[in-house]
Design brief:
alpha+beta, 5-stranded antiparallel sheet
Length: about 375
């Protein structure tokens, strides 16, 4: 085959009405599917690909690849795939799902397996930019993947918080393990309650609130007290009005306090992302409010401070389809950052907001 400097491109990255600057070829680069200058009609292109019995991808010239993948119509989707590939997030969440689903095998709660995954996550925290990791948490989650994704995200968040608290590497790994296992008791909650799309009844809520106790029981024979305390007490409140034990203040361990913040952050991010593409800065406002409702205020303020530092200066896609740069995030109104587009600098609002960050952007 003649070297045409071609690159593989998923057909999903093309759109109806795209005018081709170069020819498009089949997956091997040997058969031209559409010539330069033609307007793309995806239904026609899909039929051509189907005729050749190929995977749903094409080969394009380097210049065409760069032009298409830089377009906002595909960049968000491409970024999601690239982020999960680069970070290993997809493989980690699949491995966790495998362990959680094998409750009747020797893999179930295997300490060595769980510690190995915790070490992998700890390694990622030293290798990757934190905002890149946060980008993996922003995806809508299929119901069947919610538990493993939530467990992985809370593990990452616990590790990030432990690093912000200047913990030693072994301690960071322990916080990660606590996050990974904090909701393991959910595996004992009936699926019809876990997957209930509507507000739970009073009886269903009582069943759901048993999961910290189930977690403690599952962990009691293999894992340290700190890991168990995070699992049993991450829904406790400093004022004593949490569950399942109603403990307060210093009776709630640091592991449980950190895990509580991670748990709420990821739960709220999931709610926002399932409603549409948007940066999860609004969640910081929720944490700020929760600081008065029983979370450790010092830890919450530290979390918000570090998040503001990490997102300030980031390049983002805005709801108007243009790019911008976050210049300032108000501490008491994090969901409305100040963004610069060209020479214009203004605060975001309900009609003009940050949709997503650019993958690999180092600020």
């Amino acid at each position: 085959m003649e070297d045409k400097n071609l690159r593989k491109l998923p057909i999903d990255y093309l759109w109806d009405g795209l005018i081709l600057n170069d020819d498009i070829y089949n997956h091997s680069g040997e058969v031209m599917l559409l010539p330069k200058g033609e307007v793309v009609v995806k239904s026609k292109l899909e039929k051509l690909i189907q005729f050749y019995g190929e995977e749903k991808s094409v080969m394009v010239h380097e210049s065409t690849y760069l032009e298409i993948t830089a377009d906002e119509r595909v960049l968000t989707e491409m970024s999601r795939e690239e982020i999960e590939k680069q970070t290993g997030y997809e493989m980690l969440h699949q491995n966790i799902g495998l362990l959680f689903r094998n409750s009747n095998t020797q893999l179930w709660l295997n300490k060595e397996k769980m510690e190995s995954i915790s070490q992998e996550i700890a390694d990622k925290l030293t290798e990757l930019d934190i905002v890149t990791i946060f980008g993996c948490m922003d995806d809508p989650r299929p119901p069947e993947e919610q538990l493993q994704r939530h467990s992985l995200n809370v593990a990452f968040l616990n590790g990030i918080q432990a690093r912000w608290l200047d913990m030693e590497p072994e301690e960071v790994k322990k916080f990660i393990l606590a996050g990974l296992l904090h909701d393991i008791g959910m595996t004992m909650i009936p699926e019809e309650i876990l997957n209930e799309p509507h507000k739970l009844t009073e009886n269903e809520t009582e069943v759901m609130q048993m999961h910290p106790i189930y977690s403690d029981r599952l962990l009691i024979n293999q894992f340290d007290d700190e890991i168990r305390s995070a699992a049993r007490h991450h829904h406790e409140k400093l004022g004593g009005n949490g569950y399942p034990d109603g403990i307060a203040e210093e009776d709630i361990s640091l592991y449980a306090r950190v895990t509580a913040i991670s748990d709420i952050y990821d739960t709220e991010v999931a709610a926002i992302c399932n409603k549409g593409s948007k940066l999860p800065l609004d969640v910081l406002n929720i944490l700020y409010q929760e600081a008065s409702g029983g979370l450790d205020k010092r830890l919450v303020m530290d979390f918000i401070k570090n998040m503001r530092l990490k997102y300030t200066g980031r390049h983002v896609f805005m709801s108007d389809g243009r790019r911008g740069i976050i210049r300032y995030i108000p501490f008491n109104d994090t969901g409305r950052p100040v963004v610069q587009q060209g020479a214009e600098i203004r605060q975001t609002d309900e009609g003009w907001f940050c949709k997503s960050g650019l993958a690999g952007d180092g600020g």
